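Our preliminary data section would be incomplete without showing what the modeling component actually yields. Below, a chain of 279 amino acids is followed by its predicted structure, encoded as tokens that our downstream tools consume directly.
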Amino acid sequence: MPTMRVRGVDLVYEVLGDRGSWVTVTPGGRRGMAGERVLGATIAEAGYRVLLHDRRNTGASGIAISGESESMEQAEDLLALMRGLRTGPAFIAGSSSGARMSLLLARHHPETVKALLLWRVTGGPYAAKRLAYNYYEQFLDAVTAGGMQAVCATEHFAAMIAANPANREALLGLGAEKFAAGMQTWLESFRRDADYPVAGISPTEMRQMTLPAICIPGNDRVHPAAGAQAAHRLLPFSIYREVLTNTVDVDVDFAGWEAKTGSLASHFIDFLRAADRAL
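Predicted structure:
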């Protein structure tokens, strides 16, 4: 798998397809690119070049705990990766945390984004509390209890080390104090923006975004339909489509969305074709 060093961190990436407009696809959570490879391949089959990558601190990419906001750091990483590959402006697709990253990229670098494809948008008090723990608090607990060895043993970072053994030395090299300070900064940043209708970006900022967008709601506790509904209301040039309409009482409906990958891809391909014709 090719790797590019951007902004001091090694990013593992993959390009599917060899023609057509560029589309970046980013999963949610701290999941690696494999989580949306089937979706990316389906879009590529329709005549697009799809860029997948493991964000910093996900998959087999490198580890870097720095900056004021993890999502903003990842947005700047994606921009650097796009520039390194000379994609030019691209369609930016993201789910959950990938949607937050996509929105931040469009907000701060609108000239690089043709349109936004957002699904399973995060919002609401349950998600704000749950994700603060999932992304940051559990690792602060681990480093307090057992130092960096305990961090390396957590499920997420153990998987990153298995995917890329160099990540163990990267984590140990950070040291407990620097790791904890970085995680605390990210936690505070996340909390500041988590209570907006769309977590991570204010309504005012969203109303100012004039890019075309498609918003597809989630159906579980972390991704209630209200998140994508709010995104659609706030983004002035967005359309709203549905894939799963039955709410399920789980944090994340992985199985439901995996079964509907084809339907999701169909909505996105229709949107991409219409946007390409309009550009």
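Residues 212 and 237 are 5 Å apart (CA to CA). The first helix runs from residue 37 to 45. Preliminary results of this kind motivate Aim 1 of the renewal.
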